[in-house]
């Protein structure tokens, strides 16, 4: 009897090992997410979605991000991510520089930047910001930085940008009274902890633009890209709850020309200070 129990145990371990090996044999792709928030908060929101993508697509989709937006830019420049969720301006740059090709964007959405201030602030109009320091995540954070700064400049309002590396850091700095105002976007504002958000008010909304791109590197072939997009569509249709933490309702297939409204702005390195660092060690590069 003991012999048969031993054989059964060995067989169970063997089957388990074979199953694990089979799972590990799936083709693996690293999915890089722009670090608008802390890595832990991003993982909490994105990993369930990526797990469902893995189940549906048959690929193993691995979550990755970077410590801050400049580091993420440097990793995009190296083509370090197989798949990436990047802001509209990043897409126009890294499509040309690293060969990323958009496959999807969020359905029924335009990206608008916001400026926030403390609820108890006496900030009644944007002119009151003139001559003050204003918090932004990074120079090239499109909705939260590039567009608000451009629209402030168009109004003749001169401010001193203070780059604090993430959206969450902007909201925390303003809530703590360290900055009179700061730039963000509605998705990250809605996702910031309630004890921070409840101290803030939105004082300005920018014009709307084509939203973030879901883009793949040139290492992925057409069949893989199509399978990934189909999996995204299936997850959106059948597992909508996984999209709720992301503030997304679904996806549409994207074409490179969708971001021509961003290109029309003719932004330059002086506007965005895009970072490139070939020596940087990224998640997958």
TrEMBL record:
Species for this entry: Denitrobaculum tricleocarpae
Signal peptide location: 1-21
Keyword vocabulary terms for this entry: Signal
Keyword field contains Cell inner membrane: no
UniProt name for this protein: Phosphate/phosphite/phosphonate ABC transporter substrate-binding protein
Presence of keyword Signal: yes
Domain of life from the UniProt record: Bacteria
Gene3D superfamilies registered for this protein in UniProt: Periplasmic binding protein-like II
């Amino acid at each position: 009897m003991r012999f048969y129990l031993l054989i059964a145990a060995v067989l169970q371990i063997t089957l388990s090992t074979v199953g694990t090996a089979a799972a590990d044999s799936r083709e693996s792709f690293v999915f890089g997410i722009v670090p608008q928030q802390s890595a832990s908060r991003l993982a909490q929101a994105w990993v369930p979605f990526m797990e469902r993508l893995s189940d549906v697509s048959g690929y193993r989709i691995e979550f990755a991000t970077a410590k801050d937006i400049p580091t993420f830019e440097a990793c995009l420049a190296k083509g370090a991510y197989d798949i990436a969720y990047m802001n509209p301006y990043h897409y126009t740059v890294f499509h040309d520089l690293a060969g990323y090709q958009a496959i999807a964007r969020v359905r029924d959405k335009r990206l608008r930047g916001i400026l926030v201030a403390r609820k108890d602030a006496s900030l009644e109009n944007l002119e009151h910001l003139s001559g003050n320091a204003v918090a932004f995540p990074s120079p090239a954070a499109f909705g939260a930085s590039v567009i608000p700064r451009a629209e402030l400049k168009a109004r003749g309002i001169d401010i001193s940008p203070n780059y604090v590396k993430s959206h969450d850091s902007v909201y925390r700095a303003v809530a703590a009274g360290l900055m009179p105002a700061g730039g963000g976007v509605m998705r990250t504002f809605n996702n910031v902890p309630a004890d921070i958000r409840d101290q803030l008010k939105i004082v300005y909304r920018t014009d709307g633009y084509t939203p973030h791109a879901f883009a793949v590197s040139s290492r992925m072939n057409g069949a893989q890209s199509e399978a990934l997009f189909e999996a995204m569509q299936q997850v959106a249709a059948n597992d909508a709850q996984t999209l709720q933490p992301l503030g997304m309702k679904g996806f549409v297939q994207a074409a490179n020309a969708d971001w021509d409204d961003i290109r029309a702005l003719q932004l330059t390195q002086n506007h965005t200070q895009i970072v490139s660092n070939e020596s940087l060690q990224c998640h997958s590069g």
